[in-house]
Amino acid sequence: MKNEAPLRVGIAGVGTVGASLISMFLNDQERMTQRFGRQIVVTGISARSRSKDRGVDLSEMAWFDDPVALAKSDNIDLFVELMGGEDGPALASIRAALELGKPVVTANKALIAKHGVEIAHLAEQTNTQFGFEAAVAGGIPIIKTLREGLGLAQVQRVYGIMNGTCNYILTRMTNEGINFQDCLKDAQELGYAEADPTFDIEGFDTAHKLAILTSLCFGCKIAADQMYVEGITRIDQADIKVASDLGFDIKLLGVAQRTPDGIEQRVHPTLVPKTSTIAGIDGVLNAVSLETDHVEELLLAGPGAGGDATAASVISDIFDCVRGTHVPPLGLPVAELEPYDKARMREHEGGYFIRLNARDIPGALAAIASRMGESEISLESVIQRPDLVVNDPETKSEATRTVVLITQKTLEQSVRQTIDRIAADGFIVGKPQVIRIERF
Ligand SMILES: NC(=O)c1ccc[n+]([C@@H]2O[C@H](COP(=O)([O-])OP(=O)(O)OC[C@H]3O[C@@H](n4cnc5c(N)ncnc54)[C@H](OP(=O)(O)O)[C@@H]3O)[C@@H](O)[C@H]2O)c1
C-alpha cells in the first residue's frame, strides 16, 4: 500500500445502488486497499429521508440534506451521483463537483442521454474524470470496452437487449404462453418492473442507453431525441407463436448502425433467429453486441441492473479515478465529436413480419398479396392462422382471420405505404402489427 491519504468519497443517493455500494465499501475495505493501493472511505452521504433504514451502517458518514453541498464539501475528493433524474439535484451536484475539479461517477443514463456532451465538456475543461460505466447495461463493462478495449476497430453496428424488465416479460410470454398484461403484473409483484412501468415498456430506457452507446461507437454527439422508439406493449401471443413457428424469438432491441443515409438509431421489438446468440439472452439479463471491422463480433452479456451489479460498475469507475486513468468521457474530446447524422427511418431496409386481421371474405388474401406485389415487396412466406384469435378491441365480434406476411429485405417506406393502401381497401380490421426482423 502506498503511503497516501485515503480517498474520500461522497455519495448522493442511498437507494438500491447507493446502499449496495456503501455496503461494499464497508465490507470489502481490506480487499479494496490491497487491490488499489489506497484506502477509499465514504465520508459523506445525501438522501431525502434521514430516518429511513437502508440496511447499512451510515453512522461514520456525514449527512447532507443537499446533494450540491455534499458535492462541494471540502471533505470529499470524489463525488458519486446515484439519485437519478435527468435534471434537478443530480445535474446541479455533478456540475458543482466537476467545476471544483472533483472526479464524478454516476449511473444516471437519463442525465447523460440529455446532458452528456455538456458534462463531458465540463470534465475536459477542468481536466477531471467523469465515469458512467453503470449507466448502460448495469454490470456489463460496455463503456470501458468501447472507450479503451477496441484498439483501432471501428464499430459498424451495435445492438443489444438493454432493459431487463422488457426481456423478462418477453421471455415469459415466449416460454409460458402468458399474455403481456399478466406478465407485466407478475414482473411488478416480483420487483422487476416499476409501479409505473411506462419508461421501460415503451422503450425509453433502452433509448437512453442506446443514445450513449451510439455516441461512443460512432464518435458523434449524443442524440437521444432523434431516435425511432417503439415499446413492447402491442406484442401479442399471436406474434410470439407465429414467430416461434418460423424459427424466431421476439426481443426488444436497441440498434444503431451506419448506413449510406446516415446513422440509424432505433429501439423496437425485433424478430431474431432462435439460433442467434442474442436470442439466448433470457429473463432480466442484458447483452450488447458490437460488430466491428477488426473484431468481427463481440457480445457482452450479464446483469443489466440490480444493486450489486450496478455498484460493481460504479466501483470500477472509482478505481479508474484512483489510478488516474484519464480518457475523454465520450471516447473523443468533445470538440472532435461529429454532429449526429440521422438516417431517416423510412429509409431503413430489412425484413418485416406483418400481422393482419383480414376480413373473412372471399378475395381478401389475394387483394392483400396483390398490393404487396404492386409495391414490389417480395414475400418470403404467407401464413394464415385462423386458430390464433387476437385480442384486438377494434375487431369486435367481426369474423377475421390472422394472416402473417414475412417480407424479404425491403424499405420501411414501402411497407408503411403498402399497409396504408391495404387498410384503405377495407380488407383488414384494426391496426396491423409490424415487427422488424434482424438476421444475425
Ligand atoms: N437500480 C438499478 O438496478 C440501476 C441500474 C443501473 C442504473 N441505475 C441508475 O442508478 C441511479 C439510482 O438508482 P436506484 O435504483 O438506486 O434509485 P433509488 O433506489 O430510487 O434511490 C435513489 C436515492 O436517491 C435519493 N434521492 C432522490 N432524490 C434526492 C434528492 N433530491 N436529494 C437527495 N437524495 C435524493 C433517494 O433518497 P431516499 O432514499 O431518502 O428517498 C434514494 O436514496 C439512477 O440514475 C438509475 O437510473 C439503477
From TrEMBL:
The chain crosses the membrane at residues 6-26. PROSITE patterns: ACT (PS51671), HOMOSER_DHGENASE (PS01042). Pathway: Amino-acid biosynthesis; L-methionine biosynthesis via de novo pathway; L-homoserine from L-aspartate: step 3/3; Amino-acid biosynthesis; L-threonine biosynthesis; L-threonine from L-aspartate: step 3/5. Its EC number is 1.1.1.3. Residues 353-437 form the ACT domain. Keywords: Amino-acid biosynthesis, Membrane, Methionine biosynthesis, NADP, Oxidoreductase, Threonine biosynthesis, Transmembrane, Transmembrane helix. InterPro entries: ACT_dom (IPR002912), Asp/hSer_DH_NAD-bd (IPR005106), HDH (IPR016204), HDH_cat (IPR001342), HDH_CS (IPR019811), NAD(P)-bd_dom_sf (IPR036291). The keyword NADP applies. Gene3D superfamilies: 3.30.70.260, Dihydrodipicolinate Reductase, domain 2, NAD(P)-binding Rossmann-like Domain. It comes from the Bacteria. Belongs to the homoserine dehydrogenase family. This is Homoserine dehydrogenase. It comes from Maritalea mediterranea.
